Amino acid sequence: MTDDPNPNQKKTPENTHPTETTGHEWDGIREYNNPLPRWWVWCFLITVVWGIGYVIYYPAIPLLHGSTPGTSGWNQYDQLDRSLAAAKALHGPLDEKIAALEPEKILSDPSLRTFAIQGGKAAFANNCAQCHTSSGGGGKGYPNLLDDEWMWGGKIEDIVQTIRHGIRSSGDEDTHSSAMTAFGKEGLLTKDQILDVIQHVRVISGNAEPSDASARGQTLFTQNCAACHGESGQGSHEVGAPPLNNDIWLYGGSEDTLYKTIYGGRGGVMPHWAGRLDDVTIKKLAIYVHSLSGGEKSAPHPAP
Ligand code: HEC
Ligand code: HEC
After folding, report:
1. What angle do CA 3, 8, 12 make, to 5 degrees?
2. Which residue, judged by its Cα, is nearest atom 15 of ligand 1?
3. Long-range CB contact pairs, 33-37, < 8 A, 24+
4. Which of 181, 228, 218 is nearest to 197 (CA)?
5. What per-residue confidence (pLDDT) applies to 302?
């Protein structure tokens, strides 16, 4: 049973719904002219009132220079100053300790050490990772800072010195400056002599068996290389000569690469950071780098 008086008539808004339509029609679809829901009107009014309050209370309307100030006196510059002051109050005393204490003292205080390492790690990501990679693993020509082999010394003071003044960095008088001689280019060794000395380097680095060539190379090594790399190839921090008596390489230990190194010499450049990074940051970086490698501490490196 149905109440519809005319069940066969086509259903339209006019005959099925008592409300008027707006008179708009799209493809036969018409729009009811219903009042807005109450809850919606209230929400709308509340947001309008809130918006007016906001404009009065906070800086809001952009002007030619700045904006309306608002009655609260709040602004983002003050907020930034406050959060910087809060960070400084938190870190300041620790930074002062780091500036004042000897590296060994910092290392023996676990919370200070952790604080320094975290700061150093952040500064490393910003300033050093592009050359040494974010892990510190380095690449060809860029030393691996994770191992405990050092050209210029691995004690914290040495690392501070390297970071502060760089390596062959122009514009810094105290930079590490010695460089590997270009034995081939400068005509100090012939091609055959270089090939012999390469065999000796490959023997002491554990990559070849001794041979006649390496025996001739050993004599040449003593005459030409030992002054910097040490008689047994142990290296020297004085002149930044890497050890050659192990299989850790800055440029590479293949015969081709060794030929290039000895023929043309090498002189890797690392920028100096004094003036660009403050002393506390440099100290934190040194402590971080030192922690990556296990860190040299005890007796000074043996002289060559
Ligand atoms: C533009 C590239 C570059 C940047 C940036 C750079 N380094 Fe270096 N770094 C080098 C090179 C190249 C060497 C090796 C120089 C050489 O051949 O003696 C080096 C060497 C070092 C050494 C010496 C390693 C040793 O065996 O004695 C340390 C320590 C070091 N870098 C730390 C840092 C730290 C910390 C930063 C960031 C503040 C940094 N470096 C930024 C290129 C860079
Ligand atoms: C004046 C000092 C000096 C003398 C002499 C010298 N070297 Fe070097 N050698 C260096 C320095 C410094 C480096 C590091 C260069 C750099 O960091 O770019 C180096 C680097 C090397 C390397 C690269 C090692 C690696 O890890 O890739 C080899 C190989 C090498 N020297 C072999 C020799 C041989 C062989 C001789 C003798 C024929 C010799 N050097 C003489 C100072 C010297």
Report:
1. 85
2. 268
3. none
4. 218
5. 45
CA–CA gap between residue 122 and residue 117 (Å, rounded): 9
Contacts 24+ apart (CB under 8 A), 87-91: 91/115
Spans of the chain, pLDDT less than 70: 1-18, 297-304
| Token pair in block for residue 293 | 């490698």
Q: Within a 10 A sphere around the Cβ of 95, how many other Cβ atoms?
A: 18
Q: Phi-psi category of 24—alpha, beta or left, where left has phi over 0 and alpha has psi -120 to 50? A: beta
| Both tokens assigned to 131 | 């050359």
Inter-residue contact 169 to 205 (CB < 8 Å) = no
**Tokens found for residue 46:** 């509340």
**Which residues lie with the beta carbon below 6 Å from any ligand 1 atom?**
124, 127-128, 130-132, 141-143, 145, 150-152, 159, 162-163, 167, 240, 268-271, 273, 285, 289
CA angle 201/177/227 to nearest 5° reads: 35
Using left for φ > 0, alpha for ψ between -120 and 50, and beta otherwise, residue 222 falls in alpha
- What is the distance between the alpha carbons of residues 157 and 167, in angstroms, rounded to a whole number? 15
Which residue type sits at 296? E
* Tens-place pLDDT, residues 71-84: 998 888 899 999 99
